[in-house]
Amino acid sequence: MIALPKRRRWTWALAAALALVVVKPDPTTAQSVEDGTSPSKFHWRSSAQIIAPRAGDGNGYSALKDPSIVHVDGEYHVFMTSVGAEGWHMAYTHFTDWLQASAAPIVDLKQSGIGPGYRAAPQVFYFAPQKLWYMVYQSGPPVYSTTATIGDPSSWSAPKPLFDQAPDIIKAATGQEAWLDFWVICDEASCYLFNTDDHGSLFRSRTSIQQFPAGFSDTRRVMTGPRDDIFEASMHYRLAGTNTYLTLVEAIGPKGRYFRAWTSDRLDGDWRLLAGSPSNSFAGSDNVVFDGEDWSQGVSHGELVRSGYDQTLTIDPCQPLQFLYQGLEPHAPDTAYIDLPYRLGLLTATGPNPVSALCPASP
After folding, report:
1. Which of 29, 125, 276, 329 is most buried when burial is the number of CB atoms within 10 A of its CB?
2. 115-144 confidence digits (pLDDT tens)
3. Model's pTM, two decimal places?
4. Which residues, other chains included, contact 335 with Cβ-Cβ below 8 Å and sequence gap of 6+?
């Protein structure tokens, strides 16, 4: 399957309006990544849907999915894949408080320089060396657009390719040009582009900070395994105050989609498994508790709420993790992929977990 976006859901408990349920603590403990004392499992609470298609808004969306979220100057900016009669494209919304999310206007990005056609799975960050916002997304191959003003959805530039052609290793993995869900993260010297292929591989390409967004090369397969274990929607973050990076990859389990997790001390280093099964996942059906109706089974394509917004993709392990994800409403088993009713929700981590154990202030 070539570059078709994915969606997953799990909503955030929205202050008093969406009463939050405390997840029952898991009595199991195991050796932590560093000191052998932290709980080995993640636990989450989920709100109801917070961003979903709305009748009468003029957009005609049937689903919203694949969110990328940026918090800057007190405002949340959410970019997402939109699904409608014309297929897949992208949309934007913004708000200052999660309580406003469900009513915030959703703007179609076709009217910007991004233009019409297949566009999906955005990732948005500020590239500080150039003082520009970048959106990396799929249009078949990986492309990017830029703007100086993140709050102006009409200001995004026309898409430009990140590669002249698919690297040979991408084509060799499946016999076809299968790559999707592109993600850029940078350290002090280099920028890395990660992608999956829906066939059990995670790839990494590299360029220098000075060359970005040009110069991506040295594409390597950095993880491989069964298709269902390394499926799609990889995310990569730096943990603030540490020398640790976190990688998340969406997998397919018996109760729907879930995320596996790894850590490394370098973006080009070896990845150590942190949470790797449906019963011990980063986020999935077995460790999410809903307030009210369980509106979605599984956790799919989403993004952690970052503590910053630049190209280092930093999250704070000392604060409870929040995960804007795509969820799937109940639907007929023979529903076509394009008609699947994806909506967005927010997960909030409850209690200590293997990431919070990496907080430099942890005892």
Report:
1. 125
2. 999 999 999 999 999 999 999 999 999 999
3. 0.89
4. none
